[in-house]
Amino acid sequence: MTASSPKPMIDEDGEVREITMDDLKHFARLGRPPLPSELRKKRVTMMLDPDVIERLKADGKGWQTRANALLRDALGV
């Protein structure tokens, strides 16, 4: 094992050792890579009728994404 490679997380008895700050350097960040600035969504504030918000939220989590899709469809973009 070289100095730059991480120590095994599990010992010969199958026990997980305590995670150190040095271990965190070896963990990969998960998730999507960042988008270029011209493709990122922009934060806006707009006023909507209460019944519109209620209907968008009725289907649960992700209502803002669905609202964006509805607007894109209505605008033909």
Written overview of the protein:
This protein has three helices and no strands. By secondary structure, the chain is an all-alpha fold. The protein is elongated.
Measure the end-to-end span.
Answer: 54 Å
Fraction of helical residues: 25-40%
Mean pLDDT: 87
Give the DSSP E fraction (strand runs of 2 or more residues): under 5%
Oligomer: single chain
User: Which H/E pattern describes the elements?
Assistant: HHH
Total E-strand runs: 0
Our Rg estimate from Cα atoms comes to: 23 Å
Q: Indicate the overall shape.
A: elongated
Task: Itemize the secondary structure elements and their pairings.
Elements: H1 21-24, H2 50-57, H3 63-75
Task: Please give a quick description of this structure.
This protein has 77 residues and is mostly helical. The chain is built from 3 helices and no strands.
